[in-house]
Amino acid sequence: MMDIDHPFLVSADVVFQTDYKIFFIMEFVRGGELFTLLRNLRRIPENHARSYAIQLAFGLGYLHSQKFIYRDLKPENILIDEHGFIKLTDFGLSKSVKDGRKRDSFCGTKEYMSPEVVNKEGHWYGIDWWALGVVTYEMIVGFPPFKTNKEDWRTMILKQQPFFPDPIKHKIPMSQHCKDFILGCLNKNPDERLGARDDLDEVLAHPWFAGVDIDKLYKKEITPDYVPELSPDRFDVSNFDEEFTS
Q1: Fold designation for 29-228
Q2: What is the rounded CA–CA span in Å between residue 14 and residue 2?
Q3: Which of 76, 107, 111, 132: disulfide with 144, CB 3.0–4.6 Å?
Q4: Three-state SS across the chain?
Q5: pLDDT by residue (tens digit) across 92-127?
Q6: Entry pTM
Q7: For the stretch 196-223, what's the b/e string if a residue is b when 16 or more beta carbons lie within 10 angstroms of its beta carbon?
Q8: Which residue from 100, 124, 111 is spatially nearest to 191, judged by alpha carbons?
Q9: Which region, left, alpha or beta, applies to residue 27 given φ > 0 means left and ψ of -120 to 50 means alpha?
Q10: Contact, 74 vs 131, CB < 8 A?
């Protein structure tokens, strides 16, 4: 966290320790997390989700350029700042790959794990693009594509394709470009997955993002679809679940 500096990532300014504790001094991102926003809204429109997906792609691509795999992308780790832009946080499972070798740890949250993690085949940056596909689907549909309470969650990840809701029956419209983006991220073969060849550049070149001024979004010159309501109190934590603030 001391090494990174990016508009869509939470970094650390100072780290110090006492005899008993280690302290990380970080910026306070007070708009809540995507997890709580999704729970309150159930789902968000495709254009809103597309903006978040681009911001997440920027953050993940930057980490990859610094030779880190993030490895824990999920709504709980996506914060929203006071202006409505996202900030990726919680790097507890992140891994440096400056030695150029794949990692084979079985880690992450099961609904967001890629096939190569489930199979312990060795993973690379592609597991982050897989998770971006899962989160994008979840933002629009309201739940992850491979969510189950049964013991067959591994089989779902390894064998099943995501179910796309009917726009009339389920009242969840999704463009074909959006579906194609999700399927590209959720390719079971990491060598054929979206981002496998040119990482961030390949992801941002997808047709789903063609209608967005990506440079303006990166510079935060576009008004977000959602801006959290905050009081003048700098310590207002009302946008966070009481589970974390009580």
Answers
A1: Transferase(Phosphotransferase); domain 1 (1.10.510)
A2: 8
A3: 111
A4: CCCCCCCCECCEEEEEECCCCEEEEECCCCCCEHHHHHHHHCCCCHHHHHHHHHHHHHHHHHHHHCCEECCCCCHHHEEECCCCCEEECCCCCCEECCCCCCECCCCCCHHHCCHHHHCCCCECCHHHHHHHHHHHHHHHHCCCCCCCCCCCHHHHHHHCCCCCCCCCCCCCCCCHHHHHHHHHHCCCCCCCCCCCCCHHHHHHCCHHHCCCCHHHHHCCCCCCCCCCCCCCCCCCCCCCCHHHHC
A5: 999 999 998 888 888 888 899 999 999 988 999 999
A6: 0.95
A7: beebbebbbebebbeebeeeebbeeebe
A8: 124
A9: beta
A10: yes
Which letter, b or e, does each residue of 80-89 get, where b requires 16 or more Cβ atoms within 10 Å of its Cβ? bbbebbbbbb
Which residues are identified as catalytic? 72
pLDDT in tens, 62-97: 999 999 999 999 999 999 999 999 999 999 999 999
CB neighbour list of residue 105: distance below 8 Å, 6 or more residues apart? 95, 117
Q: Domain coordinates of the chain in residue numbers? A: 29-228
Residue 75 in tokens: 């709504």
